[in-house]
Amino acid sequence: MAVEFNHTIVWARDSHASATFLAEILGLSAPKKWGPFEVVTTDNGTNIDFMDADSEIRPQHYAFLVSESEFDEIFGRIGHKGLSYWADPGQMQPGEINHNDGGRGVYFEDPDGHFLEVITRPTEALVKLHDGPRISGLQSASRKRRFSKRTPPMSKMMRVSSAIRASSPRPTARSKRRRMGSRASTRRTFQSCSRLICRASRRIFEAQCQVLANGRIRRR
Known about the structure:
Shape: elongated
Radius of gyration: 31 Å
Strand content: 15-25%
CATH topology of the largest domain: 2,3-Dihydroxybiphenyl 1,2-Dioxygenase, domain 1
Number of strands: 8
Oligomer: single chain
Strand order of the largest sheet: 1-4-3-2
CATH superfamily of the largest domain: 2,3-Dihydroxybiphenyl 1,2-Dioxygenase, domain 1
Helix content: 40-55%
Structural class: alpha/beta
Low-confidence stretches: 134-142
């Protein structure tokens, strides 16, 4: 069985209103009540379960892949509702759409501030990431042949490595002492920096405590 995305929960201040908004803007069937959820189902069978939130809602991002004709209809509904829209996720290009990957895309917000995206082409980088590891047997064999031609045998590499080590000058006692001295110097520098950081942190903490204490005294 292939792994498929089945459902996700979207927090909302009014789950029915938010679910109805998404269904209408995308041209999907009206949401259905299931337990505490208002469920919107996409054409590929994924359920988007809206649920009322008791605390602050952190906006999330949801993207939907549609056809060119569906994009025209959705974009028309965005304009009819007077919604703000952008061509980029950073909201630096208001009132525009993008043409990424040879298609069209647009960003807009739902009533709870969730950032919705509609695109007509899947993101090319993700497609390459998904299709990249798939290599046929013939391609794999040809790559192995090319690699074996470029790479010398392991025995030859080992002989070359041994020759390099043999020709290299051996470290003297003086060079060893220098190396150990530099390591000790680095260790002492690190320890002194750590002590300075601890002192600065302690002073900042004491200053913050003093500010809090002064504030409490003034309130009284």
